[in-house]
Amino acid sequence: MDTKVYKIEHAKDGFAPADLEKIKECGEIIKRGGLVAFPTETVYGLGGDALNGSSSGKIYAAKGRPSDNPLIVHICDIASLEKITEDIPEYAYVLAEKFWPGPLTMILKASDAVPRKTTGGLDTVAVRMPDDDIALAFIKASGGYIAAPSANLSGKPSPTSAGYVLEDMDGRIDAVIDGGENVIGLESTIIDLAGDKIQVLRPGFITNEMLSDALGISVETDPALLDPSCSERPKAPGMRYRHYAPKGDVIPVKGDPDKVFGHISEGLAEAGRKGLKTGVICCAENAAKYDADVVRHAGSLDDAEAAAHIFYTALRDMDDEEVNVIFVENFTEEGFGEALWNRLLKSAGSKWEEA
Ligand code: TXA
Ligand code: MG
Question: Whole domain around residue 327: which residue ranges?
Answer without folding.
Answer: 249-354
